[in-house]
Design a protein that fits this description.
Number of domains: 2
Bound molecules: xanthosine-5'-monophosphate
CATH architecture of the largest domain: 3-Layer(aba) Sandwich
Keywords: ATP-binding, Glutamine amidotransferase, GMP biosynthesis, Ligase, Nucleotide-binding, Purine biosynthesis
GO molecular function: ATP binding; GMP synthase activity
Strand content: 15-25%
Structural class: alpha/beta
Strand order of the largest sheet: 3-2-1-4-5
Order of helices and strands: HEHEHEHHEHHEHHHEEEEHE
Shape: globular
Radius of gyration: 20 Å
Oligomer: single chain
CATH topology of the largest domain: Rossmann fold
EC number: 6.3.5.2
Number of strands: 10
Number of helices: 11
Distance between the termini: 33 Å
CATH superfamily of the largest domain: HUPs
Enzyme class: ligase
Pathway: Purine metabolism; GMP biosynthesis; GMP from XMP (L-Gln route): step 1/1
């Protein structure tokens, strides 16, 4: 059984011992994993940890600003790096799900982080990889962007820095306990999981700024409409194929949004939430009226497995 206080003491000591008098950097996305790592690193290294928020252009609405403000209140300075163009350029023309994940990984670790590390004195990257990320990557189900050593990739050789993964023994439920014990607020420790490839994991086919804007808008509506359900995770997915709809009495050949909402403990298995019909109905109505170009909304009722939570 996990003892959060002992766990924190042990990891703070490990980070301190590894980095010694040197510097480390980390990327904060605002999710529970990277937030817990930021606090562990901050406890161990103080100002010798440099924390960045990489604005990749595929995050949810207002996410960068909210997260920077929250950590400011906790005494942690976070610098925002605008890398939107780099990510969209890397994603241009890419339609295969694993190739999209690969493009995001490469842009993040090589282009953006590589140059940040080179321009800093850091030799270490602290990273929030958890056990589920490793399991699914090693099993070949999905390439999680933050798994290297377990695939035989040496980050030192590939990117020029060492990686520390203090949460790699834990699953989501364990990370939540540790995050709470680290003094993070409920908005962080009970935050819904959000994938590393962010909204790009929720666009089928090529990722463009326009499609990201559509799925971002639908995501905001979905999260707002379903927050009271206390599900493990909920999301909106933008499909690639169009369907015929009618708007203002005219044919409208438009886009489709798929809603998924999951009950799960640790993301290994999941069941679709039995959402009340009235809530689904209201959600569908809001999405087709508020998101331009969307004419159809569906709800996915397949469990994981064989489905997985994210679309790509
Ligand atoms: P799947 O889609 O594999 O998702 O059922 C399981 C859980 O992991 C999250 N997820 C990711 N997290 N990098 C991450 O850090 C990723 O590439 C990634 N893909 C999926 C997903 O949100 C769910 O909670």
């Amino acid at each position: 059984k996990l003892n959060s206080r002992l766990f924190i003491a042990e990891k703070v000591r490990d980070i301190d011992r590894a980095v010694k008098s040197g510097f480390a950097i980390n990327a904060l996305s605002g999710g529970v994993d990277s937030s817990a790592v930021t606090m562990l690193g901050h406890k161990a290294l103080g100002k010798r940890l440099k924390t960045y928020f990489i604005d990749n252009g595929i995050m949810r609405r207002n996410e960068p600003r909210q997260i920077v403000l929250l950590f400011k209140r906790l005494g942690v300075t976070v610098d925002i790096i605008d890398a939107k163009e780099k990510f969209f350029k890397a994603l241009k023309g890419v339609t295969d799900p694993e190739e999209k994940r690969e493009a995001i990984t490469r842009t993040f670790y090589k282009d953006v982080f590589g140059s940040l590390v080179r321009n800093s004195k850091a030799k270490y990257l602290l990273q929030g990889t958890i056990l589920t990320d490793v399991d699914e990557t090693v099993a070949g189900i999905k390439r999680q962007h933050n798994v290297f050593k377990q695939l035989g990739i040496d980050p030192q050789k590939a990117f020029g820095y060492k990686i520390l993964e203090p949460l790699v023994q834990l699953r989501k439920d364990g990370v939540r306990k540790v995050a709470q014990a680290l003094g993070l607020p409920p908005s962080v420790f009970s935050r819904m999981p959000f994938p590393g490839p962010a909204l790009a994991a929720r666009v089928i086919g090529e990722v463009t700024p326009e499609k990201i804007e559509m799925v971002r808008h639908a995501t905001a509506i979905t999260e707002e409409a379903l927050v009271s359900q206390k599900a493990f995770q909920c999301m909106a997915i933008l499909h690639n194929d169009r369907v015929t709809g009618i708007r203002d009495g005219r044919r409208d050949f438009g886009m489709q949004i798929e809603i998924r909402c999951w009950d799960s403990i640790d993301a290994r298995k999941a069941e679709p939430t039995r959402l009340p019909y009235e809530i689904l109905s209201l959600l569908a109505r809001r999405i087709v009226t508020e998101v331009p170009g969307v004419v159809s909304v569906t709800y996915n009722i397949t469990p994981k497995p064989p489905s997985t939570m994210e679309a790509i």
